[in-house]
Amino acid sequence: MTTVKIGIIGGSGLYKMDALKDTREVVLETPFGSPSDALIVGTLEGTPVAFLARHGRNHQFLPTELPYRANIHAMKQLGVEYIISASAVGSLKEEVKPLDLVVPDQFIDRTKTRPSTFFGEGIVAHIAFGDPVCPELARILGESIESLHLPDVTLHRGGTYICMEGPAFSTKAESNLYRSWDATIIGMTNLTEAKLAREAEIAYATLALVTDYDCWHPDHDHVTVEMVIEYLHRNAISAQKVIQETVRRLAENPPVSIAHSALKYAILTPLEHAPAATKEKLALLLKKYL
Ligand SMILES: CSC[C@H]1O[C@H](OP(=O)(O)O)[C@H](O)[C@@H]1O
Ligand SMILES: Nc1ncnc2[nH]cnc12
């Protein structure tokens, strides 16, 4: 199988990447089930990348139903070491406006009912997650955005992404609670992916595309799906340019990430005493440590 070091996960409204060349569909199975869709493997300015539509190309999966583990495992199978996630988010701050871009550096977990670890079944691991986003990848993403001088695009480097369960959007009381926590943006998917990517020793960073003011802003309509998709379409071209530039810089100078050795001090169970079936299930993640 071709080794691909850079993965791109496209969220709501970003179901394909037009700039990808020489594409082929790769259908993968994992010990955690099937990914959301086939991965599209191709090249961006000569660099091999894998693209996955997070919700499937026809947007069939709720945030709760997404096969997050299979998606990250499939990326790992291809050899991916860096994941750039492009996602729609609501803004929780006046100064973060629809069409702005945010590269968050923190998450708050408000999810309730989704598996968010590869471990268990006899193998216990606790990854460090104080810095949930790879600082190096986030830096490259931020520098790429700045270098493009995109007209009418304001970048916010850093900020906290609230990851809620959904699928219903927040109540005003919730939205105001998150504002009182000084959170910056809200979405339903990226924290779960970031945790699993860290367990899989893949660097992860988010390109958050602001589509709405959620429901707290007195002068703006409450978020709707129509609003999210309309705003995404309006900055889809910028998003693709940013991803392309980030891939170019990453390929030129791939950084060492804290994520790449995340399991070194995380596994508690002596692997020689671990159940053989679990070791087999986790072989791709554990092979460096067996
Ligand atoms: C279509 S509105 C809600 C939906 O949009 C965001 O998706 P993604 O993170 O995949 O871009 C949000 O997290 C919800 O899943
Ligand atoms: N306001 C919002 N809440 C949760 N997810 C979103 N995705 C885009 N806008 C959102």
Structural class: alpha/beta
Shape: globular
* Number of DSSP-assigned strands: 11
* SSE pattern: EEEEHEEEHEEHEHEHHH
From the alpha carbons, calculate the radius of gyration and give it in angstroms. Answer: 18 Å
Runs in which pLDDT lies below 50 for 5 or more consecutive residues are none
Average predicted confidence as pLDDT: 96
Give the count of helical stretches.
7
Sheet of most strands: 11 strands, mixed
Beta fraction = 15-25%
Please give the alpha-carbon distance between the first and last residues: 23 Å
How helix-rich are the residues, as a percent range?
Answer: 25-40%
Ligands bound here? the ligand CSC[C@H]1O[C@H](OP(=O)(O)O)[C@H](O)[C@@H]1O, adenine
Blueprint (SSEs and pairs):
Elements: E1 6-10, E2 21-26, E3 39-44, E4 47-53, H1 68-78, E5 82-91, E6 101-103, E7 106-110, H2 135-148, E8 155-157, E9 160-164, H3 172-180, E10 185-187, H4 190-199, E11 203-212, H5 225-252, H6 276-281, H7 283-286
Parallel strand pairs: 1-4, 1-5, 5-11, 6-8, 7-9, 9-10
Antiparallel strand pairs: 2-3, 3-4, 5-10, 6-11
